[in-house]
Amino acid sequence: MNSTLRIFGDVGGLPLDSTLILEASGRRSDVIAPNAAKTATLTTRSSDSAGTLTVGSGHGITTGSTIDLYWAGGSRHNVTVGTVSGTNVPISSGAGDALPLQGEDTCLACVVKTLDVDFDAAKLEAMALTCANRAIVTFFDENDAIIASIVLPGGEPHLWYASSGFDGPLGTSDQIAYAQVTSVATSPGSSDAIGLGLLIDSA
């Protein structure tokens, strides 16, 4: 199966106009509607990775959920929600940037949505991720260990293909079992979806 990639534009005034034919025996694409992000404030900061969010009523974040957290200066993914009490949402663990200063930055908290994507990372030939908004896509193995977390700045695709000469974003020794996705969209519509495209040498 083939996919065509066209690179058009310029770098430093050097014009680019290239068409690449990417080949693999298998492919898949997914368009995932993220859960709605909720506006929050970090009202208690216990450490770089733990504290309590205050979220508006009707937020829908439940005890034991996994969320990604965004703010102006960074983001944190795979964060665990503790025992929720009303608008108080305790959080801990996760990876990424250290939590922002207490009370200073408005945050967006988004409950992850899980996507079943089972493949051998060593057989990945190309991958593209897209979203109009800031978004995070995190890949896990069958033991729930994070293989890679990719932060999309919004409006810019994340693209990799094997013939680029660069190491793959998911390594070459892991079996990917699933992915989790979030974005900063507070009322996600069709234009806010997260796109995932894969070319896999399934033979």
Detailed description of the structure:
The strands form four sheets. The chain has a six-stranded antiparallel barrel with strand order 4-5-8-7-6-10. The chain contains no helices and 18 strands. The mean pLDDT is 94. Strand 4 and strand 5 (50-55) form a beta hairpin. The chain is globular and about 55 Å long. With 203 residues, the chain is mainly beta. It has strands spanning 2-11, 14-23, 26-32, 38-47, 50-55, 66-71, 74-81, 88-92, 95-96, 106-111, 113-115, 119-120, 124-130, 135-141, 146-152, 158-161, 175-183, 194-200. The protein folds into two domains: 23-33 and 113-200, Sandwich (Jelly Rolls), CATH 2.60.120; 38-111.
In short:
This protein is an all-beta fold and 203 residues long. The protein has strands spanning 2-11, 14-23, 26-32, 38-47, 50-55, 66-71, 74-81, 88-92, 95-96, 106-111, 113-115, 119-120, 124-130, 135-141, 146-152, 158-161, 175-183, 194-200. It has no helices and 18 strands.
Keywords:
single chain, globular, five-stranded antiparallel beta sheet, six-stranded antiparallel beta barrel, Jelly Rolls, 2 domains, 203 residues, 0% helix
Helix content: under 10%
CATH level-two architecture of the largest domain: Sandwich
Shape: globular
Spans of at least 5 consecutive residues whose pLDDT stays below 50 are none
End-to-end separation in angstroms reads 12 Å
Give helix and strand order, one letter per element, not per position. Answer: EEEEEEEEEEEEEEEEEE
The level 1 CATH classification of the largest domain is: Mainly Beta
Counting H and I runs of at least 4 residues, what is the number of helices? Answer: 0
Strand tally: 18
Per DSSP, what share of the residues sits in E-state strands of 2 or more residues? over 45%
Q: What would the CATH topology of the largest domain be? A: Jelly Rolls
Strand-pairing-aware structural class: mainly beta
User: What number of domains?
Assistant: 2
Sheet with most strands: strand arrangement: 4-5-8-7-6-10
Summarize model confidence as the mean pLDDT.
Answer: 94
